[in-house]
Structures are given as structure tokens and as C-alpha cells.
Amino acid sequence: MQGRLSTQRKARTGRGALLMVAAGALALSGCGSDQTQDEPAPAGEGDGTALATAQVQDGDGNEVGTAEFTEAEDGLRISVNLSDLEPGHHGLHVHEAGLCEPDSAAPDDPSETGDFLSAGGHIGAGEVEHPDHPGDLPSLLVNEDGTATMTFVTDRLSEEDLLDDDGAALMVHSGPDNFANIPERYAPDGPDDDTTGAGDAGDRAACGAIEAANG
Question: What's the CA angle centered on 108, arms 107 and 111, to 5 degrees?
């Protein structure tokens, strides 16, 4: 009987020693992990190549910030950093021509004039309805102090869309974009042309011609 108890004590002691050694190895591994292993970057992030930039201005010609367009693993990363805008939600789109001219005429209707109409409509506006245009972007939320910072990735746009022969422009509208989401109880016949064209986002408040990053 005494021999069996002694054997059991030795077995328990051996298992305890193995557990202590294993715990020590894990502790040492944990201590060195910060130096030997990097955390993986979140999806869509990383060191992308800068493709284009835009200097954004309001209708009076005042600079209100910048936008940067870079390559991303999942598409095109767009980063905006703006100020001196009206607080609230604003429609944000990429328009088909890189002309941000105050009090200009719309390319398809010269009789229609207004700030930044020279930039034309959304990229892809003639192919599908809003909010499925390639140039349709997430809403921009402007803080009470007039600043807005946002970064996102879109797979709808490419470098060729931004830097083709007539260029492109980043547009901030004066009002929120409803993305043509109008319930039938408000519009039994469906959204009208203004809604399916630009989401009723209102006037063009700020615009930035998109230019090649090395240009």
C-alpha cells in the first residue's frame, strides 16, 4: 500500500513539474511576442500607392481641405480632411469632369448655371440610377466645429475613372443624400428624377478637381 501511494505522489509531482515548465515556456513566448511578431493589418489597410489628390474649395474660392486617393487591397481608398463646412450630413460624390468652376454652366445644359456645375454629373450617371453610380460615396458627417474627417474603401472606382482625359472631381453637396430611399407611403409612384439622379443632396457646396499624385 505504501509503495502505491509513493508511486502516485511521484506521478502527481511529475505532472506538476511538466505544467510549470509549460507555463514558463508560454510566459517567455508572450514576453517576446511584441518584438518578434507584428499584428496583421486590418483588411483594406496598408501602405498603398498614392494615386491622386484633390484640393477642395467652396464657391467663394476658399480652400476647405484635401482628399487623397490611394491603392488598397480591396479597391480604392479615399481619405478626406475638410473644415469650414456647415454641420450635418452632406452628400459626397465623384463627378465626371475635373472642372471646379464657380458660377459655371452644366455641360449638358448651358442654360443651367451655378457653382461647380462644370463638373457634370456623377460618374456612371448615364448607366444606372443613384445610389448605384460608381461615383456615389458614403455620406459625409460634418461636426459642429465645421470639420469632417473620413476614410473608406470603394471597389466601384478605379484609377482610370479618376484620371481619364476629362478628369474627375470630388463634390460635397449642401444637404444630405437620401440614396433614393423614399418609402412608398411618401412617393407611391417611386422617387422622381431629382432623387434618382443625386439623392436630393442639394446644391454643390465644395469641389476639388482630382489630379495625379505626381502631377
Answer: 85
Given a cut of 80, whether residue 9 has pLDDT beyond it is no
The letter for the amino acid at 44 is G
User: Each residue of 167-176: pLDDT tens digit?
Assistant: 999 999 999 9
pTM for this predicted structure: 0.78
- The whole-angstrom separation of Cα 144 and Cα 207 is 21
Alpha carbons 170 and 208: distance in angstroms, whole number: 5
3-state secondary structure (DSSP) of residue 112: strand
- Find out whether 119 and 106 touch, Cβ atoms under 8 Å: no
Give the list of residues 6+ apart from residue 64 with CB closer than 8 angstroms, or none.
56, 57, 58, 82, 83, 84, 85, 206
Which cell numbers in the block locate residue 150? 473620413
The CATH code for residues 50-212 is 2.60.40.200
Task: Give yes or no for a contact between 66 and 56, defined as CB atoms under 8 angstroms apart.
Answer: yes
Grid coordinates belonging to 58: 467652396
Instruction: Specify the amino acid at residue 211.
Output: E
Q: What is the pLDDT of residues 76-135, one digit of tens each?
A: 999 999 999 999 999 999 999 999 999 999 999 999 999 999 999 999 998 999 999 999
Integer distance in angstroms from the first to the last C-alpha of the chain? 90
| Alpha helices (H) along the chain | 2-36, 159-162, 193-198
Cell of 84: 469650414
Residue with C-alpha cell 449638358?
Answer: 108
Q: Name the pLDDT band for 215 (thresholds 50, 70, 90).
A: low
